[in-house]
Amino acid sequence: MSTAVIRRGVGRPPGSEPTPPSVPEAVERELMSRAIAGDSGAYGELFEMHRDRISRMAYAIVHDRSSAEDVVQETFLKGLDRIATYRGEAAPRAWFSSIALNVCRHRLREGKREAERAGDRQLDGGRRLWRPRTKGAVSKAVQQENNRLLAIAMGYLTDAQREVFVLHYDQELAYEEIAQIVGIRPGAARALAHRAKAALRDKLGSEVWISRHATS
């Protein structure tokens, strides 16, 4: 797969497009098998399937849209290089998430992009834009503001809390899968996710939607 193919459409900020329906794991595994056998079209389908998800994950962790685009590209280039090492122990979505997380960690360690930080004044001011049951352009503006506030509040989490929160509530990975990726016990992953959710609610208040999945 060429770099040009990987560049297409990556790095969309959270909330910019509706989330596509989940693809059955069996379909993902079939595509992985074909990709391992040298089918570049199958790998292209995997890229199209996961690029927006990885982009959201990267943006939430590195908090920079340009860097998030780079993370998506690097993730799928590394995945292509390592495709022969995939043994099926983890679901493909978890495998790509693991690669993306390591890329994000490396970028943060190297200081290429620093997560943005914002004060409570920005959060308090932004919350005033919230209105229930709004429609049309106003509703879109409110959702964009909610996404912005969530991104700011994520800066207050510890690295471990942020990673687990994103992997569970945005990437929809089970705690057992997260435990394998991060290298902790499933119970510890659950505790980190719940502490992260509580911290975000404390910063944002109940008005701002933390996540469409943040109910468990």
Q: Could you describe the 3D structure shown?
A:
By secondary structure, the chain is mostly helical. It folds into 2 domains: 3-110, RNA polymerase sigma factor, region 2, helix turn helix motif (Rna Polymerase Sigma Factor, Chain: A); 120-204, Arc Repressor Mutant, subunit A (Orthogonal Bundle), CATH 1.10.10.10. 66% of the residues lie in helices and 0% in strands. The chain contains 10 helices and no strands. It has helices at 3-7, 25-36, 40-62, 65-82, 92-110, 120-127, 136-154, 159-170, 175-182, 186-204. α3 crosses α5 (92-110). The radius of gyration is 17 Å and the shape is globular.
Radius of gyration: 17 Å
Overall CATH class of the largest domain: Mainly Alpha
**Total number of helices:** 10
Tally of domains? 2
Task: For the structure shown, list the relevant keywords.
216 residues, mainly alpha, Rna Polymerase Sigma Factor, Chain: A, Arc Repressor Mutant, subunit A, 2 domains, 10 helices, 66% helix, 0% strand, disordered C terminus
Topology:
Blueprint: H1 3-7, H2 25-36, H3 40-62, H4 65-82, H5 92-110, H6 120-127, H7 136-154, H8 159-170, H9 175-182, H10 186-204
